[in-house]
Design goal:
Rossmann fold; Alpha-Beta Plaits; 2 domains; four-stranded antiparallel sheet; 13 strands; 31% helix; disordered C terminus
Length: 349
């Protein structure tokens, strides 16, 4: 005889109970490759976008970002590798794109029609409940007051927002955006950032490609950095910064004496002099002990502050350097990322 407790641990017909299968992630890419003749546009991308992520796909122009997004959306077939959207393969059926929307490069519309007419045409094509979502989509992107204006008279930023409104007609759970803030003025960039953040706060998963690092740092929680078609880093921005460490700079009444104290102090490392001041690496506890030691030595502190490594520092270290996370003092101060070989005309960026 079996007890109720025994039965609860068994599945139907007395079999062993099994836990429900895990929900597939919104995006799972493995070994993704795209070649055009002898040119490798994407050379083996692996990435996973989890539910709720605002995920930045970063790389210099020509690194393969747009080509990767085209494969993720099933617009072109990969040479090798797999793409899964919520566990479904977009190359096998358009049903894999249920709950998925976005745009690659710039969204396009009929310029002689107004915004609402453009959305009505797209909604009729999509069917389902899309026509009923037009008002909500226009309100979300703050174009309700301009919906009767011809799109040909829209600014670049307004067309970008209209592109997101068109994507929202599909009521997506996953939104893929290719360089959504490129070409926008500061106000347009701010509006785009706030819009993406608002969508994420409503539970939408977002993947956006970009080379505008300050924007990504403001809105994304995870990133992948691609160099010449290959992922050189994937993970949380916060974890990437922690791995780079914190560097401090110091100015005192007696820098020569302070330099000796820093080099002798436990927990203080990589002590250097640069730009007329002392710099070093340390954790917070070591900094407190150093402050006391400097005062006791007679080297009074004029100023001491952390130099936090930025996403830009880290981006350049991965796309131009050796891929070792830099400390702030050694990170490049300026410069443009080196571009890899250009992709074919039909697959820019």
């Amino acid at each position: 005889m079996t007890s109720d407790a025994d039965n609860s641990a068994q599945g139907p017909a007395g079999g062993q109970a099994t836990s429900p299968p895990a929900t597939p992630p919104p995006i799972e890419v493995r070994g993704l490759v795209k070649r055009y003749g002898e040119l490798t546009a994407v050379g083996g991308v692996d990435l996973t976008v989890q539910s709720g992520d605002v995920y930045g796909y970063l790389g210099p122009n020509g690194a393969g970002k747009t080509t990767s997004l085209r494969m993720m959306l099933g617009l072109i077939r990969p040479t090798e590798g797999t793409v899964r959207l919520f566990g479904r393969d977009p190359t096998e059926s358009v049903r894999a794109l249920e709950g998925v929307a976005g745009f690659v490069e710039a969204p396009t519309f009929y310029p002689y029609l107004n915004a609402r007419k453009n959305l009505e045409m797209l909604a009729a094509y999509d069917g389902g409940g899309a026509p009923e979502r037009i008002d909500e989509a226009l309100d979300t992107v703050e174009l309700t007051g301009r919906q009767r204006d011809r799109v040909g008279g829209y600014s670049h930023g307004m067309r970008q927002r209209l592109g997101i409104a068109a994507a929202l007609l599909r009521d997506p759970k996953l939104l893929l955006l290719d360089e959504p803030a490129t070409g926008l003025d500061p106000a347009g960039m701010r509006d785009m950032r706030l819009l993406i953040r608002r969508l994420a706060d409503q539970g939408m998963t977002v993947l956006l490609s970009s080379h505008l690092l300050t924007e990504v740092e403001d809105i994304c929680n995870r990133v992948a950095i691609v160099r010449q078609g290959r992922i050189v880093y994937e993970g949380e921005i916060a974890e990437l910064k922690r791995g780079a460490g914190t560097r401090y700079w110091l100015e005192t009444t007696d820098d020569e004496r302070a330099l000796a104290v820093c080099r002798a102090q436990s927990g203080i490392g990589d002590v250097q002099t640069e730009h007329g001041r002392i710099s070093f690496t340390a954790d917070e506890d070591a900094v407190g002990a150093l402050s006391q030691a400097l005062v006791e030595s007679g080297a009074l502190i004029h100023a001491m502050a952390p130099q936090t490594v930025t996403l830009e520092d880290l981006f350049f270290s991965f796309t131009e350097g050796d891929g070792i996370p830099p400390t702030p003092s050694t990170a490049p101060a300026s410069g443009a990322p080196a571009a890899s070989a250009p992709e074919p005309a039909e697959t820019p960026r």
